[in-house]
Amino acid sequence: MLTPASVSDYRALAKKRLPRMIFDYLDGGSFEEETLAANSADLQKLSLKQKVLRDVSALDTSTEIFGHKLSLPLVLAPVGLAGMMARRAEAQAVRAAHKAGIQFTLSTVGICPVEEVKEAAGKPFWFQLYMMRDRGVVRELIARAQAAGCSALFFTVDLPVLGTRYRDIRNGMGQKLSGISRLRSAWNFATHAPWIYDVALKGRPLMFGNLNNAVKGSLATQLAWTATALDPSVTWKDLEWVREVWKGPLILKGVLDADDAREAVKTGADGLVVSNHGGRQLDAAASTISVLPKIVDAVGSQTTVLMDGGIRSGQDLTRALALGAKACLIGRAWAYGAAARGEKGVTAVIETMRRELRTSMALIGKTRIADIDSSVCHTP
């Protein structure tokens, strides 16, 4: 293969390197993956205005959110099971993020525990929280994140139950396979020797490091436990409880409705992420870019609005900024880089997006992130 030039190139490398079950977990969405596709397709429909004869010799891609100065408006999103993509991938990713001057967010269900990521990071990073039925587990997770110096908490609110993900069902993800299916899966793993060496052998322990006190046993045992531990009864009252326990910026991840955004601000959230969980939950949900302007209009002056879903280039990032996002999160994109080439792959993905953002800014005639607004887009 030629030198990778784009996130899609790193996706191709990841697909080649990962066993099918692991790649499909990373790459897939829920049901027929319509929302997953719409996240990217709707971004592509948004055209930018090319401007000429503007002085764009000095471009500034920096911004500040939640007390952190970022070299570009990009954050590495929490990715569950990231440490199955590459050896201790969360630790590799936080190093890449901080070297690039951006932030990293650790998933509750990451392979590396928060303490290991702290050691790799050397400075504050962010933590993502799922609400469990057992509030004692949640309180411990928050305490560990605070002890590790995490400076913001992303509270995921769009997972009262797990979405129905056909790819995972077909591959037997989190299930006991039998007969020919088990043999096929074993053969597929066996034909990916580099992954076996890097992850299955050298990447141990392969467990949810942040849940090692809540449930003992194998990763399969933890997966089964997590599916039943998520609390479907969570309400805005629980957000108030989290607000009391967590001391620091609290950001709600998974908001797709303007009324919900208003309620989030009312309940004390310091920010929100317009997100449909990367198309992994409700497959009939709207794409994130299509609802972003409505949410920005509803609460943009009162809180910090971020977005994820379908961001695969610096040009996509420009589009989201134009419609009101202060920054964007990328999940699959950095995980593709990690799967392909570890920390160097994550760095390459970040730097690719940086170059693409700078190019896009120059061609639309904007030199500062704060100047990118809806005026740079063609209206339908």
In sequence order, what are the helices and strands, one letter per element?
HHHEEEHEHEHEHHHHHEHEHEHEH
**In whole angstroms, how far apart are the ends?**
38 Å
SS elements, strand count = 10
Structural class: alpha/beta
| Number of helices in the DSSP assignment | 15
How many independent structural domains? 1
CATH superfamily (homologous) name? Aldolase class I
The best one-word shape is globular
Tell me the CATH topology. TIM Barrel
The largest beta-sheet arranges its strands as: 3-4-5-6-7-8-9-10
Which spans have pLDDT < 50 for at least 5 consecutive residues?
none
| Cα radius of gyration in angstroms | 20 Å
So what's the CATH class?
Alpha Beta
* DSSP helix fraction: 40-55%
Beta-strand residue percentage: 5-15%
User: What is the level-2 CATH architecture name?
Assistant: Alpha-Beta Barrel
